[in-house]
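Structure request: Glutamate/tyrosine decarboxylase-like PLP-dependent enzyme, Sediminitomix flava.
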Amino acid sequence: MQFDFDNKQRKEILKTVSEKLENYYSSTKDFKTNPDLNIKEIRESILTKELANGISPDKAIEHVIKGLETFSVHTPHPKYFGLFNPRSNYAGIIADLITATYNPQLAAWSHAPFAVEVEELIIREFANKFGYDGNADGVFTTGGAEANLTAMLCALNHKYPNFAKDGAFGLDKKPVVFCSAEAHHSIQKAAKVVGIGYSLVESIPVTDELKLDTEILQQKLNELDLSVYSPLMIIGTAGTTGTGTIDELNQLSFICKKNNIWFHVDAAYGGGAILSQDLKHQLTGIEKSDSITFDAHKWMSVPMGTSIFLTSKNDILGKTFRISTEYMPKEADKLTITEPFTHSIQWSRRFIGLKIYLSLLFYGWQGYEQTINHQAEMGQYLRNKLLKSGWLIKNYTGLPVVCFTKADFETDTNFTKEILDKILAKGKSWLSVYPIKGIPTFRACITNYNTTEKEIDELVDELNDEVISYVGQ
Ligand SMILES: *Cc1c(COP(=O)(O)O)cnc(C)c1O
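Returned structure:
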């Protein structure tokens, strides 16, 4: 058994893979959007006895691709109107392949100076786009959850300079985190991980427009028993996961400034709007934040594991994460550089930023602006189309997330569920159901740059047909 292949074998393997990937990439729309969840069949399809001695690469590749093609929700499908999972763009796919091959180690600057400097450039570019001044800092993270966790750690270390040393045991007051009831649950998770506990996350109810209710927030702050509690951070969401709603960032920033509270904006999805001249005004106020979460693996259509944490407080990442070691390389000690491992939860680090750098080299900011505008237009097209066939839109956002139901069925708890089950069983489109103020709604998000009016027309036809058969039962 050889652990490496020769040149001819490698080329053949790569050829097989590239043909299979091309087949998937060019015909994604022919796949059933979602699999049958037959757990027995799925588990039996996974090879076990072959693990002992291995099989031929051709067979192994064919097996893995068949498994993924048969048993996945096809998020790259143009009729996946789903959660914020994009179709990966080609630059991102190639970037992951290149990264895996060179396997640069981004923990230490001196091991991968080109890669680290590329990431720093991208961080600076985004800091600039979001309106931070030249002093901002940031780091690539694996996702929005890690970025939100990083934000909470930064807020703690900013307010309590001994937090890195003494942890939660050193706190004199219980730090409270405020976010809206529609904020992402990675915030509760972050509170669990940092050790303050999720009971200190105060979920503020939302207004009729589904935004964090700043009056209730102000009231909660006024009522806070300061002998026990201390407000730590307020998190505004820019593009909630359920409804794409953007909180009142200016007002939140004002409340934070007045009360000396860390202002974090979770723009995991909605941050993409900053790339469009037509949409960016919706994010006004984000430039006044102390930190931002932005997931490039959502609206920037790069493969998973690509997110950005930004902060306007340029010393805080170092204060939060710096640690000195004997074994890390010291070649760059005298250079004015940042050692990535002193800025991040991660240690060994993949070249995450290449997916964005290569995408920008392939398509430019201008290409991104076009594709983001296109998706926003498709969201508007879907809204109009639904309104024309008598649907009610239940959310309010300029982003392409549409939540809708029929007036006659608002109180019928079976309506959305039954129709959704039928649509998913057919597997021509994928969408979800999301409750808004107790009313279940269909939720459709344009998350694929290849989704056009044709796919939207088909979705709405499918929904309308299902309503007819639901009523006819
Ligand atoms: C998706 C999402 C997250 C979590 O990001 P991951 O990349 O999945 O870790 C956090 N906040 C919001 C608003 C999100 O939509």
